[in-house]
Design a protein that fits this description.
This protein has 183 residues and is mainly β. Helix content is 10%, strand content 67%. An eight-stranded antiparallel barrel has the order 1-3-4-6-7-8-9-10.
């Protein structure tokens, strides 16, 4: 087994180890994110836009001058498929590990640069053709914006624009709208 194929199994273990080593009260602020994402799957022949749920758990480090750094584990299960000329596409599940760096910590709207690793399963079917599923994995990147509510500072509205996968014949982009709650 190659080192790259071991990476998707290693990432959740590293995040769990990080959670155990960094208690929320002392070194990190734990948070959860819930939102809706629209994925844009582009090929040479067309594009479709399935709808996904976006569920994330993360840590924002708040000691040792690391408060601009966050780690997130994201799960995006599919909610609704999309079709183009009877070609139906769906994303049953996308899993990602993201590193976020806040470039505007002193402004009310925070801007994060996002870098990560994603694995996205894409299912497609066509009339009289058996269903086909393939997995795409690789480096992901994007930008995120969030603003905390003044009345409830633990709650923030967020928008993320991501590229989950880019290949020679396929691109998977997402636009996510959601809320982050800090514990």
């Amino acid at each position: 087994m190659t080192e790259i194929s071991k990476l998707p199994r290693t990432v959740p273990r590293l995040l769990l180890l990080l959670a155990l080593c960094c208690p929320a009260a002392s070194l990190a602020e734990a948070y959860a994110v819930a939102g809706m994402a629209i994925a844009r799957i582009r090929t040479d022949t067309g594009a479709t836009s399935p709808l996904l749920a976006d569920l994330r758990l993360g840590y924002r480090f708040d000691r040792f001058n690391l408060d601009n750094h966050k780690l997130e584990l994201a799960l995006m299960p599919g909610l609704r498929d999309d079709n183009l000329n009877q070609l139906v596409t769906d994303i049953p599940l996308s899993t990602s590990l993201f590193y976020r760096y806040n470039v505007t910590p002193h402004y009310s709207i925070h801007t994060d640069l996002i870098l990560g690793y994603s694995r996205t399963d894409v299912t497609s079917s066509y009339v009289n053709v058996p269903e086909f599923t393939d997995s795409f994995h690789g480096i992901s990147f994007g930008v995120g914006f969030e603003e905390s509510l003044k009345s409830i500072p633990q709650l923030a509205f967020k928008v993320d624009i991501m590229q989950l996968y880019r290949g020679s014949q396929l691109r998977i982009n997402t636009l996510t709208l959601g809320f982050r709650y800090a514990f």
